[in-house]
Amino acid sequence: MADILPDATAAFAREIGPEPDGVIEEMDAQAESEGFPTVGPEVGGWLQLLARVVDARRVFEFGSGFGYSAYWFARALPDDGEIVLTEIDADELDQAREYMRRGGFDDLASYELGDAIETVDVYDGPFDAVLIDNEKHRYREAFEAVRPKVPEGGVVIADNAVTASPIDFEALSALVRGDDPGEVDEHTAGVADYLGAVGDDPAFETALIPLGEGIAVSLRVD
Q1: 120, 100 in Cβ contact below 8 A?
Q2: Distance of CA 50 to the CA centre of its chain
Q3: Contact 204/221 with Cβ under 8 angstroms?
Q4: Which of 37, 89, 112, 149 is the most exposed place for a label (fewest CB within 10 A)?
Q5: Roughly how many angstroms between the first and final C-alpha of the chain, as a whole number?
Q6: Tens-place pLDDT, residues 204-216
């Protein structure tokens, strides 16, 4: 994972963030051994905190993998809350279900196998917190699908807002500035398109948290 911060700074961010439990430590170990991309504990702590800040009751994830980010969110939800996990890989979704069960969060979770953008269409809002972490070229599509279901005071969080293995940061930065970087891959172009769309939306205020691979946090203000 191409983290933005130096290792020592990232470790320091983890030290002062919320304390992980044993299940999170197991998920971290699995991610490290398999090379599986997760948001990591420093971003996970922010997901938990942001859910608390907006008093989230319902969360929707575009792309859940084996449940890492969902687990962090779930730690901030009330007993009658809900988090919708979406994943196209059945084995990963089964792992997510097991991790959530072991953490005591299975009753809060809905597990959806299939395309996340198709899935969100069948759910009524509101969703107080949303994580966009699906295919990068579909970030804007995900935002537009969930936007009507995010209430004022709700938050949309996009992972990989700075980097990821397929993203060219120099090209991304040029696109965000309005410059022409030349030929750009669909992943980089997709993230830039998303950042432009949410940044230009008057109903949202957006800022970057430079942890992990970068998360763009957009608060609905209107």
Answers
A1: no
A2: 11
A3: yes
A4: 89
A5: 35
A6: 999 999 999 999 9
Residue 3 has pLDDT above 70, yes or no: no
Is residue 48 within 8 Å of 27, Cβ to Cβ? Answer: no
Please state whether 40 falls in left (phi above 0), alpha (psi between -120 and 50) or beta.
left
Does this model's pTM top 0.90? My answer is yes
Instruction: At 165, list the tokens.
Output: 């293995």
The residues facing 201 across adjacent strands are none
φ/ψ (deg, to 5) at 61: -115, 130
Polymer length of the chain: 222
Arithmetic mean of pLDDT, 61-68:
98
Mean pLDDT of 62-85: 98
Check if the beta carbon of residue 77 is closer than 8 Å to that of residue 108: yes
Residues 6 or more apart in contact with residue 55 via CB below 8 angstroms: 128
**Is the peptide bond prior to 20 cis by the omega test (within 30 degrees of 0)?**
no
pLDDT in tens, 164-182: 778 999 999 999 999 999 9
Kind and range of the H or E run holding 159: strand 155-159
Residue type, 66: F
DSSP 2-48: --SS-HHHHHHHHHHSPPP-HHHHHHHHHHHHHT----HHHHHHHHH
Indicate whether 134 pLDDT > 60: yes
Question: Which tens digit of pLDDT belongs to each residue from 150-161?
Answer: 999 999 999 999
Q: How far is the C-alpha of 4 from the C-alpha of 28, rounded, in Å? A: 18
